[in-house]
Please model this.
Amino acid sequence: MNSGTYLLTKLSLVKKIHLTKLGYRVCLLTLGSCLILPASWATSRDGGGGGDSFLDLPLEDLLSVEVTSVSRKKQPLSEAAAAVFVISQEDIRRSGVTSIPEALRMAPGIQVARINAQTWAITSRGFNGLFANKLLVLIDGRSVYTPTYAGVYWDVQDTLLEDVERIEVIRGPGATLWGANAVNGVINIITRASADTQNGFIKLAAGNEEKAIAGFRYGAELGDQTQGRLYLKYADHDSFVVNNTEIDAGDDWTSAQAGFRLDGQLSAQHSWTLQGDVYQNDENQRVAILWLDPATNPPPYQENNMPSQADASGWNLLGRWSHQSSAESSMSLQLYLDHTERNQIYLTQVYDIVDIDFQHQLKLGTSNELIWGLGMRRIDDEFDNSFAVSINPDHQSNTVYSAFIQDEISLDPDILSLILGSKFEHNDYTGSEVQPSVRALWLPAQGHSTWVAVSRAVRTPSRIEDDGRIVTVIIPPTPTVVSLEGINAFESEELLAYELGYRLQASSNLSWDLAAFYNDYKNLQSYESGEFGNKVQASTHGIELALDWRPIEWWRLQTSYSYINISAQIDADSTDTISVQLQENNVPDQQLSLRSTMDISQRWKLDVWAYYVDELPVTSISALQSSQLVEDYTSLNIRLAWEPVSNLEISLVGQNLLDATHLEFIGESFIPQTLVERSVYGQLRLKF
Amino acid sequence: MLFIPLQLNAMDLSLTEYKLKAALIYRLIMFVDWPEQAQQTVTGSFGICVLGDDPFGTALDALQQRKARQYAIKIYRYSQSDSITNECQVVFISASKQAFQATILRVLKKFPILTIGETEDFAQQGGMIQFATGEKRINFIINPVSAEAVGLKIASPLLDLSTVIDTGFRTE
Model:
């Protein structure tokens, strides 16, 4: 954190240097010798790969090159007026994680719980569950939450981890710049520019739980102004084990993904990027209870512990064009297409999303920096229902229109800024939503920064809350089918958040980052005699602390600590008997993570990561009904890496070493209670 | 210094920031003289080393196709300053080492090594050549006193193109 990590608000940074005059034949008199550049410089500029022709440029020319940034807002981390934590590429590599959900454990204020081999419950600042819905997740500007339940299917959010530049974790409402559903936080996964991933890379890993991982990437320059890469990735994950038994949980799965990225610069002012991915996952799933139609099935109208095959596949394409018209003004236009399919025994879902987003950033006078934007997203869905889970109508088209504006007012240059903004959205469920936010940033002295914020955010209804039906139980002999149904009158959940933060660069090798919050929620989802309702209110408060300390040159310690307290109530006219206990107990009161990274010698690195997660008394309706709590646990992860030659790294990683198995979360009734197992794998990484 | 532009071809070329810095390193080493016995490593090459996180990517590796004077350039990467002994003529100290910069510069001043960095106080703390990014362009801040203290001579044409500061190494 003390080496100038940069936060990007919404778009990735492209910093290019534009050289306009070349081809000098120059004679520099120096110490009596004359350096004459080859006159053939003009012709030696080849289109095939560019090569090292940049080394032929004379010193005078290099010093007169203008450095221009075609970018959106770029601020040093210490100046962001929000609770931000950045997980860098080095953090990802040295923690030994093999997936994005596991990497998120390094951030304070984020609760990550692995339900089984292929499913995670992830949230920020409370309200965790398989269907956690208060977090917005973006990959390079593309939103990846599913409109089915406003949450994220983590098993398909993947890329070659070595191509991730960083993951920005912003706790608290990010509503103003990102929109509805960024209620408790935004996770921004940013991949590296093609220019930074040139040449070849291969990785191979094998272990007991991560049975096989293979990754390949090749990057090249395509002409002088364009760089690109393509990658392939495959992973085979073993199954875990069912709680209180020795039975295999039947949740093993494989994933295959490929993608490309192209970055280009048309001039000093114009840059563009085009990227896409395609993936296919094949997953085994064991369904604990599948309810069957009594009209065509005998009692007890259910199948238990059924093994089934599920698959998820999709592709996406994203293009962005940026233009820096002057030092005061820049704009960008982004378009993406996202197609996803998910086929499970109780529901098949297909989504086609088209999203267009425009942003303009400009400096007005000396003390105002304005960003405004317009966006439109069209979501077409199609469902193949089962008796147990159905959505009606089974296909629909929804459009969301949005606009936002934010003004950063410099009240006292470099010392005090006020940031006012709001997002305006119109959606087909609740009509118009307004999400304003006021923030102030104060830098009282060198190395200290404080910020405060008050924001309003909403979480708009999902398909299931509006149009869904989920069978919860069938009671013989009639038989009576009890279900939970969506209602068209389902309202948006609302949040009013009050936040405060303080960052301190205590010395050149120690920095702190503290954030505190008080959140007031209204209209939270409730269960009203077989229907979804909005009759839960809650308030939460907590603190998060991150520390970064380098006691000696080759040893770094990073700690993060989170504390949260949740208190929920139902409305006077509510018939809900579950939500209060559920929402007050589905996140740990405290979490602590301690990571030590040591460069023990030129060739050897030893990284140790231990994290503690407090107990979870109630994680789901099925956990409440079986009175099963999730105990607190500590996970110890160790990674030892050896670099025998400079382009080759061999490592051995042990994960969850303290317990052979442990329970992290109990999902809904259809997933068997599954234990996470101890895992060890060996990996080879080669650059060529 | 005589500077005669003989031919001008307007061309468009995009360089990433670190390709530019790699080219700058390649050019500026031609303006520095090493003491006779330290001009090459034991293997007869000219070592350019990166200490800490390498921001250059593959840009610096391109220098290995070239020579510095008559010695083939070799690029090495180090994660700790105590591992650097006699394989390096030049060490680029990465911003990731900023917290320990003062200690590292003290360790390296035992050797005739040209130190290059890009943090704000690099030259102030005794680093020899600092890349500074101004409003629009990259320029050098040079500390010739610290270079002379280890037997390196920086030629005046290079000093003319840079901002020169004068702190040298203050003995503590």
